[in-house]
């Protein structure tokens, strides 16, 4: 069991024939992902070889879905084309769309997120994210597949790099699913969405939630945890040393007064019983203690 992505997922790649798309399609295939096609209007009807596996290229997402039954699309297209690519996937009723592209204009994200919400069919992960991996089953995005194997920890993170580090730190336990949701001001899948899915997943025993300064997503997640999550949760908030009032790294990471600070987020999480580490390693150790307690 896993959330959002399984061994049965049929994945297409929008932008598969570009340099990034080609590189990461090769990696996704190597990790066992069932990639059934790519999309490039200029190369429709062709195929592309990936270490001996031939993957067909379709002119549109609708054609790819019709021919393959694809239910996941991973998007590797430049920022100026991302909105149209996502809208095409939404119109084709693809259930899961993973938007890897960074630098997408916020108003474009707002437009395609609104379209996805209105569709009632499509879940978006990203943009500006590393994607989602269910170790040993499928990998939709750029998360290295060899960091950690399958296990019973769920991971949701705003930060791509910290997704990788936390998976590595807890590789002795492994993960049901790890999802990088991205750090832009507007994103599709949120901490709360992932927390709810992990709560409902019978093969996830505990959850790691990684946030960062800026906005109030972590405070809202804390309120959700209090009311809805019975599984143990540990947290980490990146940015304890960040100066107030400056944008740090991700576009969403801006602090205004006391709102959005790492300390305020830590306080909100700890108030609902979430243990918060000061460093990624300390956070991993908190989760290790929980997992060891669950296996006794």
UniProtKB/TrEMBL annotation:
A Pfam cross-reference name: CoA_binding
Chain positions recorded as substrate binding sites: 164
Keyword Glycoprotein appears in the UniProt entry: no
Residues that coordinate or bind CoA: 17-20, 43, 100-102
SMART domains xrefs: CoA_binding
All copies of domain CoA-binding, residue ranges: 4-104
E.C. number(s) listed in UniProt: 6.2.1.5
Keyword terms: Ligase, Nucleotide-binding, Tricarboxylic acid cycle
Cellular component aspect of the GO annotation: cytosol; succinate-CoA ligase complex (ADP-forming)
Organism domain of life: Bacteria
UniProt record, GO biological process: tricarboxylic acid cycle
Enzyme class: ligase
Catalyzed chemical reaction(s): GTP + succinate + CoA = succinyl-CoA + GDP + phosphate; succinate + ATP + CoA = succinyl-CoA + ADP + phosphate
Task performed by this protein: Succinyl-CoA synthetase functions in the citric acid cycle (TCA), coupling the hydrolysis of succinyl-CoA to the synthesis of either ATP or GTP and thus represents the only step of substrate-level phosphorylation in the TCA. The alpha subunit of the enzyme binds the substrates coenzyme A and phosphate, while succinate binding and nucleotide specificity is provided by the beta subunit.
Subunit (UniProt): Heterotetramer of two alpha and two beta subunits.
Similarity comment text for this entry: Belongs to the succinate/malate CoA ligase alpha subunit family.
Name of the protein: Succinate--CoA ligase [ADP-forming] subunit alpha
